[in-house]
């Protein structure tokens, strides 16, 4: 048994298909099959049930999968620790909501890259729910998410308070009374988006049960649909400002309890905090201090 066998095993388990796993790993299928058989011989057990649609883990396979993920993660941490020096280098994987990636993050990433150009930055966008899951699984080293985050395994930094506004193309929405809102199409991100949760909670507080929901995966898609007059959406004020360059957008503020949220940077307490990660956090702190100065002036 070696680490490569475990990596192949975990990939097959995740894909539930040997052919897909082989393609993902850039291996020939026979090589993948041989490694699985070697593991099964080594542990004297069957790790997968084979069927015409692929494979599924057996009970003993489930046990090995749990330990294999831990072993591979620990070995990855060892590699990061040993390769990390006082001067930031290597890779840094960060997650972010699309709205933050479009407005707040460019300045942070630009500042960081100027100081540490040798660090290879990787950015993953997603909903707050998805980013929290990825951070807990340590698939990414940290993420910018919205709202309160209370989890014993996570550390957090308050980055900025965002104002949320309801936006539409002019003449689509002239007020936020019941009659107008009840007949609107709401353009939202997929389930797990914190902004969507805020919107739905606010509508629910007004007794509105939206029947027309257009679900999109990208900020560009949401913006494009709003500009085309296909519906209304809830966005942060900086995004709305960019959207309203031509002055053809109407915006409405929400009540205070719904209209302001906090963007936070989170990370798992037990990740390997390389010099690249520590300096990234330092840049975030500097950005937070600058925002406070600009806000108070």
Automatic annotation (TrEMBL):
Record keywords: DNA-binding, Transcription, Transcription regulation
Gene Ontology terms for molecular function: DNA-binding transcription factor activity; transcription cis-regulatory region binding
Domain HTH lysR-type: 1-58
Keyword field contains Membrane: no
InterPro entries: LysR_HTH_N (IPR000847), LysR_subst-bd (IPR005119), WH-like_DNA-bd_sf (IPR036388), WH_DNA-bd_sf (IPR036390)
Lineage top rank: taxon: Bacteria
Transmembrane segments: none
Keyword Transcription regulation applies: yes
Family: Belongs to the LysR transcriptional regulatory family.
Annotated PANTHER family: HTH-TYPE TRANSCRIPTIONAL REGULATOR, HTH-TYPE TRANSCRIPTIONAL REGULATOR GLTR
Protein known as: LysR family transcriptional regulator
Source species of the chain: Virgibacillus salarius
């Amino acid at each position: 048994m070696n680490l490569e066998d475990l990596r192949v095993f975990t990939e097959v388990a995740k894909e539930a298909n040997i052919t897909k796993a082989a393609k993902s790993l850039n291996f020939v299928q026979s090589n993948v099959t041989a490694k699985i058989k070697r593991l099964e011989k080594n542990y004297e057990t069957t790790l997968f049930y084979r069927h015409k649609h692929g494979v599924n883990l057996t009970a003993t396979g489930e046990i090995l999968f749990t330990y294999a993920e831990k072993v591979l993660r620990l070995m990855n941490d060892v590699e990061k620790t040993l390769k990390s020096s006082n001067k930031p280098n290597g890779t840094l994987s960060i997650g972010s909501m699309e709205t933050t990636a479009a407005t707040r993050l460019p300045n942070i990433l630009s500042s960081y890259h100027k100081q540490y150009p040798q660090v290879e930055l990787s950015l993953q966008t997603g909903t707050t729910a998805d980013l929290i899951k990825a951070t807990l699984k340590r698939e990414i080293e940290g993420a910018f998410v919205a709202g309160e985050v209370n989890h014993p395994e996570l550390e957090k930094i308050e980055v900025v308070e965002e104002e949320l506004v309801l936006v539409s193309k002019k003449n689509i929405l002239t007020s936020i009374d019941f009659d107008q809102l009840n007949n609107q199409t709401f353009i939202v991100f997929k389930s797990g988006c914190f902004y969507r949760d805020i919107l739905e909670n606010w509508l629910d507080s007004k007794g509105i049960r939206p029947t027309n929901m257009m679900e999109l995966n990208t900020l560009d898609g949401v913006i494009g649909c709003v500009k085309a007059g296909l519906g209304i959406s809830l966005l942060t004020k900086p995004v709305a400002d960019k959207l309203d360059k031509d002055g053809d957008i109407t915006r409405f503020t929400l009540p205070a309890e719904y209209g302001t949220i906090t963007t936070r940077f989170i990370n798992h307490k037990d990740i390997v905090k390389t010099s690249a990660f520590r300096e990234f956090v330092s840049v975030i702190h500097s950005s937070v201090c600058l925002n406070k100065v600009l806000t108070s002036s």
